[in-house]
Amino acid sequence: MVDVVIVSGMVHSLPRLKAHYIGVDYGALFLVENDFPVEFAVGDFDSVSKEELERLKAQIKTVYQTASEKSDTDTQLALKLAIEKFPNARILIYGATGGRLDHLLSNLFLPLEERFRPFAAQIELFDLQNHVRYFLPGEHKIACDEQFKYLAFVPLLPALDFEIKGAKYQLSRSNILVPTSFASNEFIAQPVNFAFKTGVVCVIESNDESSLR
């Protein structure tokens, strides 16, 4: 599967993958300054200076500059373009979870939009403490990633017959009708199994901030 990396805003570090890199606003500047190959950049670029924007336009072949007042956020536009260009790709989004809470929620809820929901299982969010994935109805298994201590299951839409097996805290078949975070779970064996019949479930692997020190 092809990987697409969307850098949406400021990040502290970024893996060098065999991937197509897309810069969103300031994220495009990060990519250029750190010598990443950039497929294209998108945004209103209100977080970069005029000189920095000219530099981006000189170094990136395709720059989609948008109006500051628009229906979609810059990250929504980047995801839309990524799916149009690479519909079968795994899409890794960095820099989408820090800073403003409204931006965090907007990005966390991206796979709930009807236009993005068919691609929910291909979308992942990353930051220094978290790895976020999305799952559609069915039976699923998750293997332990030893770099993360905690595991959370977050039904974002009503999830019928939701169950968790093989984790430290198990859940018998339940109907979860409002967004709920089953947080601070952990792996005790490989793998953890979970299933549900409706909705979208977000799975978060994470660490405490203290583990970064």
What's this model, at a glance?
The protein is of the alpha/beta class and 213 residues long. Helices cover 18% and strands 35% of the residues. The chain folds into two domains: 1-128, Rossmann fold (3-Layer(aba) Sandwich), CATH 3.40.50.10240; 129-213, Thiamin pyrophosphokinase, catalytic domain (Rossmann fold, 3-Layer(aba) Sandwich), CATH 3.40.50.
Question: In words, what does this structure look like?
Answer:
The chain is α/β, with parallel strands linked by helices. The chain folds into 2 domains: 1-128, Thiamin pyrophosphokinase, catalytic domain (Rossmann fold), CATH 3.40.50.10240; 129-213, Rossmann fold (3-Layer(aba) Sandwich), CATH 3.40.50. It is 18% helix and 35% strand. It is built from 4 helices and 14 strands. The chain has helices at residues 26-33, 50-59, 74-85, 101-108; strands at 3-8, 19-24, 38-43, 63-65, 90-94, 123-126, 130-135, 138-142, 150-155, 159-165, 171-176, 182-185, 192-196, 201-206. The strands form 2 sheets. Strands 4-3-2-1-5-6-7-14-9-12 form a 10-stranded mixed β-sheet, with helices on both faces. β6 and β7 (130-135) form a beta hairpin. The protein is elongated. The model has no long low-confidence stretch (mean pLDDT 92).
Q: Which second-level CATH architecture of the largest domain applies?
A: 3-Layer(aba) Sandwich
Count of individual beta strands? 14
CATH topology of the largest domain: the name is: Rossmann fold
Helix/strand order, N-terminal first: EEHEHEHEHEEEEEEEEE
Bin the strand percentage: 35-45%
Outline, from the CA principal axes? elongated
Strand-pairing-aware structural class? alpha/beta
In CATH, the homologous superfamily of the largest domain goes by the name Thiamin pyrophosphokinase, catalytic domain
Strand order of the largest sheet: 4-3-2-1-5-6-7-14-9-12
Contiguous runs where pLDDT drops below 50 for at least 5 residues: none
Number of helices: 4
Query: What Rg, in angstroms, do the CA atoms define?
Result: 18 Å
Count structural domains: 2
Can you identify the CATH class of the largest domain? Alpha Beta
Largest sheet: number of strands, sense, barrel closure:
10 strands, mixed
Mean pLDDT, all residues: 92
Estimated helix fraction: 10-25%
Tell me the span between the first and last alpha carbons.
34 Å
